[in-house]
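sanity check this record:

:::
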Amino acid sequence: MRGNSFEAKVKADGGRELLRLLGVEEPAGVSVPDLSAAGPEGRVARTALALREATGAGGWTLLDHPLLALEVAGSPVYLEPDAVVVRPDGGWTVVEIKSFPTIDGSADAAKVGAAARQAAVYVLALERVAAVTEGARVAHSVLLVCPKDFSNVPTASVVDVRKQRSVTRRQLDRLTRIDEIAAALPEGVSFDVAERSPEELTASVESVPHQYAPECLAACELAFHCRARSREAGAVETLGRSVRGELGGLTTVGAVLAAARGEAGDPDDPAVAALRRARALREEALASAPARTPREDVECPC
């Protein structure tokens, strides 16, 4: 709610506050085109047309919530920046409005980094439109608008997103296309929730391998399903990717415990040696710890 309220304040009166931050003293001469259209494809086409018209107009143009399209693994993904400003010289700048404060000229580094990564995706999508628009140039720095100190007064800072843009572009180029993933699925597998019964959908989900990590819980609807399968298999991925990387060839919890007890594993393996050393230190600590006698007046929670 605070974010929506702050964005509405920044864009009030035809974007007067936002244009002031851009150095435009007279917002009356700024064009604010209507970007409404039927469906996402229509909105994307209307945004592209507005960008082309603004680039050749030679004035300031403010696009409020334009819709952009970006191909991810062979499938279009629709993106909606807070705003895009077209300058008189044909430059396009992404504007990202956030509700976290800028205190004494600096903001939370983690939040600024997240905003930069988000804006870098918008820059990549804009570059696809600029590639077919004569005279268009997409700025590799974005305008981040935040509340100043403890007030609701907007302030702006320029954030360079060249690094985030390059990283995101490499990641997108390395993604496996969706049609290639679909071609590798077993015969008859479908995830169409409208046409398939719950039993058929369950069978389809069970037929594909799982790649669980604790981070999945924050983003994937199937995270609990994959976690249950991972726990049933005793996979060490349930403890986190960093743990998985430290354990090397030990891929199950059972193998890890056996290696720690000296029942399996190569003694020359650094992971096995570390596990056995950790077990020895634990036994030593337990042996030297004083025995504890439970109080009679305290009921055992078991």
Remarks:
- The beta strands are 61-64, 68-72, 75-79, 83-86, 91-97, 137-138, 141-147, 154-160.
- The chain has a mean pLDDT of 87.
- Residues 141 and 160 are 4 Å apart (CA to CA).
- The domain at 2-174 is CATH 3.90.320 (Lambda Exonuclease; Chain A).
